[in-house]
TrEMBL record:
<comment type="subunit">
    <text>Component of the dolichol-phosphate mannose (DPM) synthase complex.</text>
</comment>
<dbReference type="GO" id="GO:0006488">
    <property type="term" value="P:dolichol-linked oligosaccharide biosynthetic process"/>
</dbReference>
<dbReference type="GO" id="GO:0035269">
    <property type="term" value="P:protein O-linked glycosylation via mannose"/>
</dbReference>
<keyword id="KW-0479">Metal-binding</keyword>
<dbReference type="InterPro" id="IPR039528">
    <property type="entry name" value="DPM1-like"/>
</dbReference>
<feature type="domain" description="Glycosyltransferase 2-like">
    <location>
        <begin position="18"/>
        <end position="187"/>
    </location>
</feature>
<keyword id="KW-0256">Endoplasmic reticulum</keyword>
<dbReference type="GO" id="GO:0004582">
    <property type="term" value="F:dolichyl-phosphate beta-D-mannosyltransferase activity"/>
</dbReference>
<comment type="function">
    <text>Transfers mannose from GDP-mannose to dolichol monophosphate to form dolichol phosphate mannose (Dol-P-Man) which is the mannosyl donor in pathways leading to N-glycosylation, glycosyl phosphatidylinositol membrane anchoring, and O-mannosylation of proteins; catalytic subunit of the dolichol-phosphate mannose (DPM) synthase complex.</text>
</comment>
<dbReference type="InterPro" id="IPR029044">
    <property type="entry name" value="Nucleotide-diphossugar_trans"/>
</dbReference>
<keyword id="KW-0460">Magnesium</keyword>
<dbReference type="Pfam" id="PF00535">
    <property type="entry name" value="Glycos_transf_2"/>
</dbReference>
<dbReference type="InterPro" id="IPR001173">
    <property type="entry name" value="Glyco_trans_2-like"/>
</dbReference>
<dbReference type="GO" id="GO:0006506">
    <property type="term" value="P:GPI anchor biosynthetic process"/>
</dbReference>
<keyword id="KW-0808">Transferase</keyword>
<comment type="pathway">
    <text>Protein modification; protein glycosylation.</text>
</comment>
<keyword id="KW-0328">Glycosyltransferase</keyword>
């Protein structure tokens, strides 16, 4: 096998990619997701940093992040913890303030999103100079693995209702594996009012309103191996309310 040529892999060497990793009780998953991120960014030759935003996890996630920082270096692993759980949207706002990249990846820290897709996101973004690129489980060879029927019905139902009511011109509204131009994400978050499960959907709707361009990359979503899902009845009710509010106001 021929060795990779970094200069060919990365013609736009001025670009830097910041990965925002909000965490809560992800001690078991964090070492592997960080290792995979380092591996795939390293092989692709792109400049990157990983910002871990831990919300006071009681399981020692922050202590694990500190160990990873000592292994990979403070320039690659940036720790920006918060004292308590304050919500996904505010975690992104907090992380962006410290991001030095001109592109932002958001993804889950629970291994549901495999970093092997990162080079495909970057390639897709550059092909169309897209403002954001969203991972989709519902187009091409994308898929979901490890979910029970209830979770599949919730996700499919949420996407179907959103497509019917809001027509967002994107196939996966509730996914959270995306690549943004930093300025675009800042602009979108300023306009978003939702929290939790509905937040990802609102970002896509706001992007459509502002006429930002959206590309899609098929991804395989795998249910978490360690820890418990944070999707519960409260999040489902919140999603339904958020969907109705967006339908009435957009």
């Amino acid at each position: 096998m021929k060795s990779r040529n970094t200069s060919q892999q990365n013609p736009d060497s001025e670009d830097k990619y910041t990965v925002l990793l909000p965490t809560y009780n992800e001690r078991e998953n964090l070492p592997l997701i960080v290792w995979l991120l380092v591996k795939y960014f390293g092989e692709s030759g792109y400049n990157y940093e990983i910002i871990v935003i831990d919300d006071g996890s009681p399981d020692g996630t922050l202590e694990m992040a500190e160990q990873l920082q000592r292994i990979y270096g403070e320039d690659k692993i940036v720790l920006r913890p918060r004292p308590t759980k304050l919500g996904l949207g505010t975690a992104y706002i907090h992380g962006i303030k410290h991001a030095t990249g001109n592109f932002i990846f958001i993804m889950d820290a629970d291994l549901s999103h495999h970093p092997k897709f990162i080079p495909e996101f970057i390639k897709k973004q550059k092909e169309g100079d897209y403002d954001l690129v969203s991972g989709t489980r519902y187009r091409g060879n994308g898929g979901v693995y490890g979910w029970d029927l209830r979770r599949k019905l919730i996700s499919r139902g949420a996407n179907f209702l959103t497509q019917v009511l809001l027509r967002p011109n994107a196939s996966d509204l509730t996914g959270s594996f995306r690549l943004y131009k930093k300025k675009v994400l800042e602009s979108l978050i300023e306009r978003c009012v939702s929290k939790g499960y509905v937040f990802q959907m609102e970002i896509i709707i706001r992007a459509r309103q502002l006429k930002y361009t959206i590309g899609e990359v098929p991804i395989s979503f795998v249910d978490r191996v360690y820890g418990e899902s944070k999707l519960g009845g409260t999040e489902i009710v919140s999603f339904a309310k958020g969907l109705l509010i967006l339908f009435a106001t957009t």
